Amino acid sequence: MVKCKCWALSTKKDEDKLLEDDDSEQIIPLDQIIPPAIVQFLDDMEREKPIRFTSQQVRIATGSFCSILGSGGFGIVYKGIMSINKYVAVKVLNGTSNKRIEEQFMAEVSTIGRIHHHNLVRLYRFCFEPSLIALVYEFMVNGSLDKHLFKANQGEMIGFDKLHEIALGTARGIRYLHEECAHKIIHHDIKPGNILLDSNFCAKVADFGLAKLCNREKTHITMTGGRGTPGYAAPELWMPLLVTHKCDVYSFGMLLFEIIGRRRNMDTTLGDSQQWFPIWAWEIYEKNQLKELMIDCEIEEKDLEVVERMLKVALCCCQYRPENRPMMSVIVKMLEGLLEVPEPLNPFTHLFSGSNQPNVSATRMSWNVSGSTWSSSV
């Protein structure tokens, strides 16, 4: 990582100076250099919570982009500072397609920019100029969950008490997106790399570049091409099937498997039976051999109850048919221990004998209604 001094926009005078500098340059109407749809979108968003930044303000906040936090297909994330002791993460979008960048920018700003929740990363500011497209987020000092789950040194692993809190916080964040926002928000890319951790290891769902807003009245959405990350994306995202918010539930289940195993679900360095953790975990559960799981995953006896609950929830979430997956409000209550987790069906029968599964029970049918009306006595 390159280290250097980052300057903050700490006073009103600094910002006024930047505006004066900007005024000295030749002014070109926005609608001549930025698509009209984007101009209208930016005008609308200025009436919402995030504040618009100029490219020069972003460069000052990041010290001319000198400290890199990470990178990916979307672009590069830099560390910056907005005011005294207020650090930020600045995501600079880039790619080969301007249209794709614009879509990702609008997806992130229009979703996370309008809402606020304890378990969702907060968007402070944004910039959209011909020379720079950037999003300014709150800085998460402990980085992403994947950096802690997949460490080589087992002694540095997060304990299961804290991992359970992270799983629960993630579930609460997704529940808010699905069931508590004015518009239902489908994230489409739940995975450890998109779960950020603050100084107290509180989980915050991040990266809304693939997110999609939809009216609550709509039961499904139309997809144009696959979304999400292979290995976490639900089957319906890659097949000609109806897509609902339950695709996030499937991805959350895959995330739970990686939390339980503290390893990537696919590991070709292991024996054939353990290469794909979810199906090995199902076989262990089906044979009632959780002791073997505890030994292989270095789970202590005191954590057995919480790990078994998380495993059963993961198996319920990863059902092939979306209607067999519980809603996030139900998942939260099961993880909290307020609801008993029913015996899960085998999520992987479709891999061996087609996609047929047993008829769903009344309990699983109730998963598709509001969590507040769900009862373990159904």
From TrEMBL:
Keywords: ATP-binding, Glycoprotein, Kinase, Membrane, Nucleotide-binding, Serine/threonine-protein kinase, Signal, Transferase, Transmembrane, Transmembrane helix. Residues 63-349 form the Protein kinase domain. One of its GO terms (cellular component) is membrane. It is found in: Membrane. GO terms for molecular function: ATP binding; protein serine/threonine kinase activity. Coiled coil: none annotated. ATP binds at residue 91. Pfam families: PK_Tyr_Ser-Thr (PF07714). The keyword Transmembrane helix applies. It is a single-pass type I membrane protein. InterPro entries: Kinase-like_dom_sf, LRK10/LRL21-25-like, Prot_kinase_dom, Protein_kinase_ATP_BS, Ser-Thr/Tyr_kinase_cat_dom, Ser/Thr_kinase_AS. Belongs to the protein kinase superfamily. This is Putative serine-threonine/tyrosine-protein kinase catalytic domain-containing protein. It comes from Helianthus annuus (Common sunflower).
